[in-house]
Amino acid sequence: MYDRARTVAWSVGLAVALALVALVSATIGPVSIPAGTVAKAVLNEVALPTLSGAGVGWIRPFRFTVESSDAVIVTELRLPRIALGAAVGFALATAGTVMQGFFRNPMADPSIIGVSTGAAVGAVAAIVFRPAIPLVPNLQAMAFGVALLAGFAVYLIAREGGRTPVATLLLAGVAVQTFLGAVVSYTLLFAGDSLERAVYWLMGHLHAANWGKVGAVWPVAVLGFAVTFAYARDLNVLLVGEDDAQTLGVEVERTKQILLVVAAVLTAAAVAVAGVIGFVGLVVPHVMRLLVGPDHRVLLPTSALAGAGFLVATDTLARAGPAEVPVGIVTAALGAPFFLYLLRSREVHSL
């Protein structure tokens, strides 16, 4: 039976944990800034609406004294990166939860339908060819567009007789990923001076974060989550099998189409701004399933918040050392051994 209070309790706890991780993350960097100073700098940016004769205006109720250099570091450099990391982790964990429920397989992740590799093709093409061909769209637009095309191609290949068999979709995704991986490798042969930038993007990073990217990803992440949460009950029913789900009143094909589209959009948006970051959409939903159970009405919000916190934490580790490393390396270095531990302890099993 669905326990709404339990969902709220877990969600509030994870939201508080995310806020604490974000606060700690904002203190860490080449210039160490105390947590109190970070909090003051953030509060100084809070604006509240007010009514006046001229209409609706905005006031800033807090006026804490903060060094201008510290305020700039916090609000213009670290907070955008933290907010972008949270958005990307939120989107990837949501998409991963949907894919694992959709395929009824804990090994499924957001890249399983070729979206991440499609984004890699678009991004690498933009990096390599845009300097010579100005008509080529910018990196984010190319990555997002080609990612969605790859996901759509996988869906069309797998569709047969008005249905989309899950096994066929999985195999089509593997085949398309392999082909697109070859395209990426071939394109890198022509990278020249752009090779380092292309390889760095493929590793997954958040170093180029800004408020524009945050404003582009968060609405997509929230809207995508809202749609998937509306289908949480249908995802639960799909776990028993498509035939039984149809008998219980679920419009199976329509539900599958919507969930695939939303998962593809979430993954494409995340990868377009951050590169290929693995294991967030694989490990986080699986761990949360062990903690809260398989009910997607609980699993979706908890996985999304845990994914946001996980990526902020791993990005903090990525930039905490003497030299910053791409966050994709850190997520893989932490995620792969942990998943192997779950596998050896028999915690990984079919849904």
TrEMBL record:
GO cellular component: plasma membrane
Cellular compartment(s): Cell membrane
Segments traversing the membrane: 82-103, 112-133, 139-157, 169-191, 211-232, 258-284, 325-343
Annotated Pfam families: FecCD
Membrane-related topology note: Multi-pass membrane protein
InterPro entries according to UniProt: ABC_BtuC-like (IPR037294), ABC_transptr_permease_BtuC (IPR000522)
Main location: membrane
Keyword annotations from UniProtKB, A to Z: Cell membrane, Membrane, Transmembrane, Transmembrane helix, Transport
Subunit description: The complex is composed of two ATP-binding proteins (BtuD), two transmembrane proteins (BtuC) and a solute-binding protein (BtuF).
Family membership noted in the UniProt record: Belongs to the binding-protein-dependent transport system permease family. FecCD subfamily.
Function of the protein: Required for corrinoid utilization. Probably part of the ABC transporter complex BtuCDF involved in cobalamin (vitamin B12) import. Probably involved in the translocation of the substrate across the membrane.
Name of the protein described by the UniProt record: Cobalamin import system permease protein BtuC
